[in-house]
Amino acid sequence: MGKRVGLEVTVAVAEAVALCRIDMAGVYPITPQSHIAEHLSTLVADGKLDAEFMTVESEHSAMSAVIGASGAGARSYTATSSQGLMLMHELLPIASAMRLPITMAIANRAVSGPLNILNDHSDIMPQRDAGWIVVFAENGQEAIDLSIQAFKIAEHKDVMLPVSVNIDGFQLTHMVEPVEMPTQEDVDQFLPPFVPHATLHPARPVTMGAFAMSDYFTEIMKAKDEAVKNSKKVILAVWDEWAKMFDRSYKPVETYKADDADFLILTMGSMGETAQLAIDELRVKGVKAGLVKLRLWRPFPFAEIKAAIKNAKKLIVTDRAVSFGGPGGPVFSEIKSALYAETRRPAIYNYIYGLGGRDVTVHDFVGMFEKIIADTGNVAADTYEFWGVRE
Amino acid sequence: MTLKSWKELPIGCVVSEPGSASEYHTGSWRSQRPIWHDAKCIKCGICYVFCPEGCVQQGEDGFFKANMDYCKGCGICAHECWPCAIKMVEEG
C-alpha cells in the first residue's frame, strides 16, 4: 500500500503521472494548472522521470505535440485549463478520431469573458462532443487515482480513446490534502506498458489522420460513437480492479444516503463533499435528503443515473456552466433527456451556481432543498435559476 | 472500390498501405475537362508544370494530355497555356 503524504493536489497529480512512466509530456502553463507542468518539468530535469518534457508555445501546440507523440507510440500526457482548453478545442476531436490514448488533466476554470481565473465548469462543457472520455474528481485522492486509471482505460485495446480528468481549479488544484500516493511497484503492477494500435515509423509507413469525404464520414462517426459507448465496459472493469488493489472504489454515478431519499441533489466535481455535509444536516432535521454524484460525464451513464434517482420525488440538478438561451445548464439538459422516456420521474429543478469561483457553502445546499420542498405545486420544476444572483 | 461498413473500419482509420491514395480517383469530382488542340501547342510544358495534381503527362510525340482518373477539371492548365491550346469543356 502507498504512503500517506500531505501534498498540493497539482503536485500529487504530477507525481502520479510520473508513476505511470509517461514517455512524453507536452504542457503549456496556465493558472490553475501550472503546477502540474512545473512539477513534471522538475521531475524530468532532476532525472527522476525518464520522459521528454516538450516546452510548447501554446496549448494548440501542446495538444498537437501529444497527438504526434502518441501516434509515434509514446505514452503522452498534457494538462490545461480554461482558455488553454478552448485553444486546444480544434484538436480534441482529431485525437479521439485517430484513437490516440492521450490523457489530460483539466484544472477546471471559468472561460473568459470577463477574464476570471477561478473555478467553474465552463471550460469542459463546450468540449462535450469531442469524443473524449470525461471523468470528474471530487477530492485530491480521486484526482491522483483517476489520473493513473486514465492511462489504463485510454490504452486498453478495446478503448484507444483520449481521457480527460477534470479537477476543479483552486478548490482542488491548490489544496494541500492528505493523500495516499501509490507505490511505483503497485502502479507498475496495475498499469501495463502502452501497446499502440499503430505507430508512425519510417520503416513501417502508415497514414494517420487521413482525409475522408461523404462516402465514409458517416461510418467513421458511427464507429467513433460506438467506441466511446463501448469504453464503459472497460472503465467499469478498471475501476473494479482498482478497488481490489487499492481499496478505493469508483463508479460512474455515486450516491450518498440516496436510497430512501425523497429529495435528491446531483453534483459533479468538488461540490459533492460540501453537499454531503448539507445532506447530514438535513437528515438530522428529519428531511429525507440524498446526494447523487456524477463522476462519468462521457460516456454518459444512462442506466446508473436512472437507477439512482428513480424513487425520488424531487431532484435538484446543479450546473457550473451556462447554456445561454438554452434549456438550462448542460448537466440539467442531459439529465432531463436521459429521463424523457421514463413514466416515473422526479420533478427536476436546476440551479446554476459557483460560477467564476463564487463560494458555495453548506448553507447554500440546505437552502436549495428548502426551496424545492416549499414548492409544493412543482411550479419551478423544469426551469433553471442562477442561485444566489443579485437581483 | 467496395465501400466498407462502419464495423470494418480499422481503428482510428489508419491507412496501412502506403500509396493507396492512388486508388481514390479524384477525377470523379470533375465538372469540366481540358481538351488539348495540338495544332496550337508549342510543347512548352507549362500545363505539366502548373497542374496541381501532377496528372498532366507528355506523350512520346511530345504533346500533353491529362490522366482523367485524377484530373479534377480545375482549369489551371487552360488558364496558364499562353498559346491557348487548352480549352475547358463541360462534362457530360
Overall SS class of chain A: alpha/beta
Count of DSSP-assigned helices of chain B: 2
Question: End-to-end span of chain A in angstroms?
Answer: 52 Å
Helix content of chain A: 25-40%
Number of strands of chain B: 4
Distance between the termini of chain B: 22 Å
Mean pLDDT of chain A: 97
Q: Main sheet of chain B: which strands, in order across?
A: 1-4
* Main sheet overview of chain A: 7 strands, mixed
**Can you tell me the number of structural domains of chain A?**
2
Return the CATH architecture of the domain at 36-92 in chain B. 2-Layer Sandwich
Mean pLDDT of chain B: 95
Low-confidence stretches of chain A: none
CATH class of the domain at 36-92 in chain B: Alpha Beta
Q: How would you portray this structure in words?
A:
The complex is a heterodimer of chains A (391) and B (92). Chain A is of the alpha/beta class and 391 residues long. Chain A has 2 domains: 244 residues, Thiamin diphosphate (ThDP)-binding fold, Pyr/PP domains (Rossmann fold, 3-Layer(aba) Sandwich), CATH 3.40.50; 134 residues, 3-Layer(aba) Sandwich (Rossmann fold), CATH 3.40.50. Chain A has 12 helices and 15 strands. Chain B has a domain of 57 residues: 2-Layer Sandwich (Alpha-Beta Plaits). Chain B is built from 2 helices and 4 strands. The relative contact order of chain B is 0.25. Chain B has a two-stranded antiparallel ribbon with strand order 1-4. The chains are: A alpha/beta (391), B alpha+beta (92). Chains A and B meet through helix 8 of A and loops of B.
